[in-house]
Every structure is written in structure tokens, then in C-alpha cells.
Amino acid sequence: MVQEPTLFIDLNALADNYGVLKQKLNADTKFLAVVKASSYGHATAPVAQKLVDLGVDYFGVAYASEGAELRGAGIKAPILLLHPIAAHFEQILEHNLEPSLYSVSLMRQWIDFLESKNIKDYPVHLKFNSGLNRLGVAFEEITEVVSAIQGTDCLNICSVFSHLGASDDPDAEEFTRDQIKRYDSFYATFTQKMRDNNPQFKHPWRHICNTSGVLNYPEAQYDMVRCGIGLYGYGNDPKYDRLLRPVAQLKAPILQIHQVATGQSVGYNHGFIAQQPTVIASLPLGHADGLHRIFGKENGCVWIHDQPAHILGNVCMDMLMVDVTNISCKPGDTAVIFDQQHGAQDFAEGAGTISYELLTGLSKRIKRSIVP
To answer: In this structure, what CATH number is given to the domain that contains residue 108?
Structure first.
């Protein structure tokens, strides 16, 4: 039984998932663990520390504050900062984070900043937009990028990378392979232009694969891969999900049980009206905890004594109500929102969303409990 809403984080499952993904890689392929958004809603420090023990080569975060949190937890491994912004340049430098330079303007700002500090050979990563159209320099900007790099001695280009937009979608194979081809062309053109003026230019690492890229396009693993959701137990495909173990399990106690007569309503705005006598259980989780209103009105289903209990009416800020008419239960019994048998992806799909959104949206007020 659980006494309060708790997210159990199984570090043994994390280790197993890392092993599954590592087996897909060549021996010399580096592994970057993506731990942005509190390690996909889990817990930053314990997850990162376990991954260090497992031997990851790099970490990836979205923003400088996340990198600072890792450094504060004692993580010394290199950290790729995926979405740097100019306002955080001092923080990037303070915590020795390696920014992704995704635009010519950002590159010039970063160069100016480093030159003002008289810093040389700072590690950075160049991002190419191969088709996701989110962040990244364009192919047509290669000459401008090369000129900026060769005009300074403050940059050390560690890698040139891109990001796949649909590597989990079997129907998008042609699009994904086109992305890989465009990336290959960008890399070849960029490195050739660099070597034209500097024959000693050392080729940067290449990386484009995310979790689904590793699983579906292993030939594109290049020098490094960046894995996030797979580490936490989800492969975006049933055949891969069977190989992985969800790291997080969310459970909550039943607070109260109500007998609802025919015609009575449940929750705000009469979100559910009983068509027959109904028994409901109230659980201390709501949209302030990351279980959004979209999961209400029977779109979400929890498990009590291994039986499904659908969410009735509108999810409240701190509470949700489930149908236990056919389940023998009492206050204090445990409701499973998701676990290793009924994964976060299953819960999310009921409301038309994905495991990423559910996991990363879990509020910090939910207790985290580490299962070592």
C-alpha cells in the first residue's frame, strides 16, 4: 500500500534498458543519455548518477538550468546543451556546458561572448536542420558558418549533428532516409570546406539517431547516439516495448468511496451523471499533478487490484474519481496509474497523447521514491 501519491523509480529497470540499447550499438559508438525535463519526469540526480555508473559518455539537456542541476549533483561528464539561448551564456560557461550552435546568429553571439572573455577552443556542437524544421542551420548557410568558425580561434567543433523527425513511424521511412542523406551531404560539404582552408581540421563526431533511430536505423548510428525515452522504458513500438522495462510506476491511495445513485452527478460541472447506481473511489491526483483534464470522462483508466477503473467526470486540480462499481476495494487500497505491466504509454493513449507528455508533465509535488 502507498500512503500518498508516489512515483517509484526503478534504477534496475534503467540499467536493463541501457543494456538493451547498448547491445544495438557498435563497440566504439558513444552513448549520450538525454536527461532533460528532470530525466523525462523521473528524477534528475539519481537517474544521472546511475547512468554515470553504467558508463554513459555524454549527457544531453535542453536548457542551462538543467545542466547546472547536473553539475550541482556532482556529474562531471560532458553535457550537450541542446537549446541554448544568449541570456544564459554566463551560466553555460560557469558550468562548462557544451552548447549546440543551431543558427548563424547564435554562433556569432557565442563567438563574441567567448572573445570578450579571451577563451579559446571552447567545445561546441553544430546543429543542421535536416527536415524537422525546428532548430538547425540550413545547407545554404554552410559557407557563412565556415567563415565564422575560421574567423576565430575560440571554437572547438566537437560534433555536427541533426535530429530525426519521424524515426518511430514505419510509414515515414522515405522521409527519414532522406533526412539521413541530407545530413550526410551537409557533413561532407561542411568538413570539406573546413579542410580547404585548414588541412589539419579534425573531423567532428557525427550523430543523428534518437531512441527510435537506434532501433530502426542502426546503420546511421555514426559516432554517437542520443537516447532519451528508450532509457525510461518506451520504444515507440510494441516489439521494442517488450524489450524495455518502464522505469517509473505511479501509484496513489484511495481516499474515499462514494455510493452514487442513478441521476446523481460526479465532480465539477456534472462531468459524469450516473445512469445506474455507481460506486466511485476518489484518488489524490489531479491536473496540478500532471494528470490533465483530457484524461477525464473515461479517457483514462487506472488499475485497482489488477482490475480497470475508468476516470469519471472532469479531473479536478487535486483529485480524480474512478468507477469501482465492480471492484471490491476500500479506502487505503492502492490504485496504479501506470507501472511495468500497464505502462505510461497505455495510460496516455487512452486520451490520445503520448508517454513523453505524460511523464514529463508529472508535478514535483508527487513524491519520488528511488528503487535501487
So the answer is: 3.20.20.10
